[in-house]
Amino acid sequence: MKSTLKELIAQGKTLVSDGAWGTFLHEKGLKSGECPEYWNIDHPEAVYEIAKGYIDAGADTIETNSFGGNRFKLSAYGFGDQVFEINRKAAELSRKAAGNDKYVLGSIGPTGKMLILGDVTEMELYDAFREQAMALYQGGADALVIETMTDLDEATIAVRAARENTPCEVICTMTFDHLQSGEFRTMMGVSPTDMVHALKAAGADMIGANCSNGIEGMINITEEIRSVDKEIPVLIHANAGLPVLKGTCTVFPESPEMMATFAPRLAVAGANIIGGCCGTTPEHIHLLSEVLKKKP
Q1: Does domain 5-292 bear CATH number 3.20.20.20?
Q2: Which of 35, 206, 237, 260 meets the CB 3.0–4.6 Å disulfide criterion with 171?
């Protein structure tokens, strides 16, 4: 029987995750305004190729093409009645790429609805996350990663929905901005310390951060998490640096070599699964894998 992610981490392993997805979907032909998640249905070979590219690069875990796969976002594209099919297919494609030995992380992003503004009720959020989590599990996900969260209430509801309706390990990451004061906060004012207490109470098996920061900034976030909790596993998906506008194009400045330079420091700070977010490529993941899997 395959070990769980928590069991591997308890053995002292540092795992490597995948990188960006959206960039490669666009490279393969996804048009602006088109639903990325529907590509699981009508362009499955392209989605599979992205996942397989990261597995071949050395990733231990691969996410699914389901970040915006909740009923609210899919309804905006006219696919609100296909939530289960789209998410299950997302997990099946990543499962095929991962094989039996690697791990599939079912990606669950924010809904775009704000509790504080009355856009949605807590029960409506819970039902949406439950529906997506169950579909990803049925498609073969080993764990569920609730990611890019900024609102702690939405994050905890998502964690509970995943925990209470699937046997999957549940990971939750929030996205933090680096303030001029030197502190890190989400758009809704949540600190890494706030996140630790709330997500653990909600039942998360693993916590962490993704997006908004390059890998160097993630070291400070990880250190703050570890100042509060020494034991809970931590997942970090860093951008390839902060985005820079060159002409009409947005580019991410951190090369694979630059990112790999900081990876050992991130592991020492306490990150257990390290991968990429915006701007990262299979080349980034390949070098992360080479650096992090060297014997000390």
Answers
A1: no
A2: 206
